[in-house]
């Protein structure tokens, strides 16, 4: 997968998980899955390319990136069960030299004709107007548009927090994570029972849900010096958690 600090679409997928499953449960899911990651791609469209080239078997990616590769019979794309629509934005910039023409272009895109043009392209994007009922994409469009929308105010508010926490928890320690999860899976297989206490150590995070929604707490990530101090504390937290997990696994031998 890609990091939310490198890809806005990956950021939205991460936030979708956090908002639908809850802050703690969402991070537990991502940290558990991290043990199976091959790499952290620098861009989200690189995820599909890596799957196509055989470097991975599955990866989270948005539909319009995946659909461009579905002419390959060995590839398939599936939406997450609770996937919600994420709009593509368009706007007129404040310093536009041709604001009237830009507005007319936006009006065209939002018109029935413009939406039909978008729906007929190979981008995989859905129009904001309903597709014909006999369209093969009609049912999926209705599902996506009927899902509760993400809280975009919250996404923007804690954007830097999520990006920095993901990289500290997963991106920059992926090798150590994979080693720890491999050891845990091996121990559970050998003992023929789950080890929830050790899993809890590997999926703990140093930020509470209340903090993730607290404007005062989030202010520190706007200042580089304060955020760097926080990241250093997180690094120490994850190192300590992993040491505890490895020690507990060694005591089981």
TrEMBL record:
Keyword terms of this UniProt record: Signal
GO cellular component, one term: outer membrane-bounded periplasmic space
Keyword Transport appears in the UniProt entry: no
The keyword Transmembrane helix belongs to this UniProt entry's keyword annotation: no
Transmembrane segments: none
Protein's name in the database: Phosphoglycerate transport regulatory protein pgtC
Protein source organism: Serratia fonticola
């Amino acid at each position: 997968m890609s990091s939310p600090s490198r890809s806005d679409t990956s950021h939205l997928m991460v936030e979708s998980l956090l908002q639908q499953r809850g802050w703690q449960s969402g991070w537990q899911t991502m940290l558990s899955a991290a043990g199976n990651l091959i790499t952290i791609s620098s861009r989200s469209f690189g995820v599909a390319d890596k799957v196509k080239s055989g470097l991975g078997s599955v990866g989270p990616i948005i539909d319009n990136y995946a659909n461009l590769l579905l002419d390959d019979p060995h590839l398939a794309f599936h939406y997450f069960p609770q996937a919600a629509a994420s709009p593509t934005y368009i706007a007129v910039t404040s310093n536009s030299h041709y604001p009237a023409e830009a507005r007319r272009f936006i009006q065209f895109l939002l018109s029935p004709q413009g939406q039909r043009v978008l729906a007929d392209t190979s981008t995989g994007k859905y129009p904001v107007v309903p597709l014909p009922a006999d369209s093969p994409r009609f049912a999926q469009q209705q599902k996506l548009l009927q899902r509760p929308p993400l809280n975009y105010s919250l996404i923007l508010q804690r954007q830097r927090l999520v990006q920095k926490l993901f990289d500290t928890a997963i991106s920059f320690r992926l090798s150590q994570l994979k080693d720890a999860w491999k050891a845990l899976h091996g121990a559970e297989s050998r003992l023929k029972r789950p080890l929830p206490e050790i899993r809890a150590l590997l999926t703990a995070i140093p930020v509470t849900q209340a903090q993730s929604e607290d404007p005062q707490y989030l202010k520190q990530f706007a200042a580089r010096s304060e955020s760097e101090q926080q990241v250093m504390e997180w690094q120490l937290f994850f190192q300590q958690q992993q040491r505890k997990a490895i020690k507990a696994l060694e005591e089981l031998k």
